[in-house]
């Protein structure tokens, strides 16, 4: 048995546009069902969603029913959290709140086995198909994708340096935290924030580094894609549920 190929990384580095969905419900049923729709990637969030890493493994198992690539956001840029996320089978990680090139390099180092990094070695994990993938240690570095999240004005001053760290495969711009950093808390749609988001992707395109972003509706996702963002989450699962339920309630009460 061979180690799984990271199709998200392959397609991202090939310059393809990848449509995603943000997952916060921590429900294996939702994960399995939504994986069947055809999204290029699903992201399981442990930073702001009420889910710990132990709960992520069954989400990954459920979502493997479909063809979507699976991404995990650890709660922090932490060596232990990164190690555990990789061991349960995550191949692509979105590392939050990266402020400096040194922090980006630390994230990459945490994903690499010695001598190129400090990831602890375990043989019987889900990542290696419980030890059955005999080439896992050989293939692990090539198949792990590291995405770093830049989400403050301060971090944006070092955007090219952060993006240029070896092993960083893409840069995700966080609209909500960036809006707060600029002074528009709760208003990522503000013109100043939007202009900053557009400038960021243009800077990343200039150095040929894939850029990602979270939209909460399809209109925003389409606009971000037109600017050049290549991996875009078009909505959040909980938001979709609430909007759908609210629409039903509005319709039935209108009668």
Topology at a glance:
Layout: H1 7-13, E1 18-23, H2 28-35, E2 41-45, H3 53-63, E3 69-73, H4 79-87, E4 92-95, H5 101-111, H6 136-143, E5 145-150, H7 153-156, H8 159-163, E6 170-173, H9 175-182, H10 191-206, E7 211-214, H11 218-227, E8 231-236, H12 237-254
Parallel strand pairs: 1-2, 1-8, 2-3, 3-4, 4-5, 5-6, 6-7, 7-8
Helix pairs in contact: 2-3, 4-5, 9-10
Detailed description of the structure:
This protein is an alpha/beta fold. It has a single domain (7-254), classed as Phosphoenolpyruvate-binding domains (TIM Barrel). Helix content is 45%, strand content 16%. Strands 1-2-3-4-5-6-7-8 form an eight-stranded parallel beta barrel, surrounded by eight helices.
Q: How large a portion of the residues is in β-strands, by DSSP E?
A: 15-25%
- Overall spatial form: globular
Low-confidence stretches: none
**In what order do the strands lie side by side in the largest sheet?**
1-2-3-4-5-6-7-8
Element-by-element helix/strand order: HEHEHEHEHHEHHEHHEHEH
């Amino acid at each position: 048995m061979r180690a799984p190929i990271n199709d998200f990384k392959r397609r991202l580095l090939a310059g393809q546009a990848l449509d995603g969905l943000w997952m916060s419900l921590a429900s294996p049923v939702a994960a399995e069902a939504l994986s069947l729709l055809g999204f290029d990637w699903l992201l399981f969030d442990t930073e702001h969603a009420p889910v710990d890493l132990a709960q992520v493994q069954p989400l990954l198992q459920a979502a493997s029913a479909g063809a979507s690539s699976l991404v995990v956001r650890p709660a922090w840029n932490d060596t232990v959290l990164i190690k555990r996320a990789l061991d349960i089978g995550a191949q692509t990680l979105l590392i939050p709140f990266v402020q400096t090139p040194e922090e980006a390099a630390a994230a990459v180092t945490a994903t690499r086995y010695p001598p190129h990094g400090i990831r602890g070695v375990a043989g019987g994990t889900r990542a290696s198909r419980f030890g059955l993938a005999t080439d896992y240690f050989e293939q692990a570095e090539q198949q792990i994708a590291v995405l770093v999240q830049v989400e403050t004005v301060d971090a944006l001053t070092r955007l090219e340096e952060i993006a240029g760290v070896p092993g960083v495969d893409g840069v995700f711009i966080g609209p909500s935290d960036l809006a707060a950093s600029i002074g528009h808390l709760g208003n990522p749609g503000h013109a100043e924030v939007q202009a900053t988001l557009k400038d960021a992707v243009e800077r990343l395109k200039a150095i040929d580094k894939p850029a990602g972003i979270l939209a909460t509706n399809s209109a925003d996702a389409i606009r971000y894609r037109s600017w050049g963002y290549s991996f875009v989450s078009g909505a959040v699962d909980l938001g979709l549920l609430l909007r759908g339920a609210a629409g039903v309630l509005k319709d039935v009460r209108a009668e």
